[in-house]
Please model this.
Amino acid sequence: MPFQIIIEKASLKHIDAIAEIERSSFVAPWSRKMLLSELEGHDFSHAYIAKIQEDPTKKPVIAGYIFFWSVADEIHIINIAVHPKFRKMGIGRRLIQVALDYGRKTGARHAFLEVRVSNLNAQHLYTKMGFKVTGMRRGYYTDNREDALVMKYVFENDKNQKPEFGSQNLEDSKF
Ligand SMILES: CC(C)(COP(=O)(O)OP(=O)(O)OC[C@H]1O[C@@H](n2cnc3c(N)ncnc32)[C@H](O)[C@@H]1OP(=O)(O)O)[C@@H](O)C(=O)NCCC(=O)NCCS
Model:
C-alpha cells in the first residue's frame, strides 16, 4: 500500500508519542526529563519527527524521530528511533537525511554518532548513508558496559551530490 512520510520539527506536544517509541526501541530508554530537555531546545539542539500516512482518510501517525546537535562545524546525531511497526520502510533513512541536509545547509564538515557494537541494523543504515567507523569507545553504554562504535560522515565527500531536501526550510517544512 502506498504511504507518505511527512517530516516536521518536533515540539513538546509530541513528547508522549516520542516517549512511547523510545520505550519500545531501547533497553535503556531516555527518561521523560531527558526528552523534555532536548525538546525544550537549546540553540544547538534539533529534533524532528517522521509521521506516516498510510490511509489518506486518517490522520498521520508519529512513526519515528531524530535528535541531533549542531556544534561548530559538526553534526552529532544523539538519538534516532522508528516505531517497530514502521521499520524497514525507509523512515530511518529519511530522518538521517534530515540531519545531513541540515549539516550541508549550515556548512558542517563532519557528522558523528555512536552505535552499540551489537546493533547491526542501525550500523547497516549508517553505512548505507555513507558513515564509516572511525573509532570505538570501550564500555560506553552504562547498562551493560557494551562498547560503542564511533561512526563519521564527511560532508566533503558528497559535495557532488544534490542534497535531497537541501532547498527546503527545515524549521517548518513538510516533505
Ligand atoms: C535503526 C532504525 C532507526 C532503522 O530505521 P528503519 O526505518 O527501519 O530504517 P530504514 O527502513 O530507513 O532502512 C534503511 C537501511 O537500514 C538498514 N536496515 C534497517 N533495518 C534493518 C534490519 N532490520 N536489518 C538489516 N538492515 C536494516 C538497511 O540497510 C536499510 O536499507 P534497505 O532497506 O535498502 O536494505 C530502527 O531499526 C530502530 O529504530 N531501531 C531501534 C532504535 C535504534 O537502534 N536506534 C539507533 C541507535 S544508534
In short: The chain has four helices and seven strands. The chain has a mean pLDDT of 91.
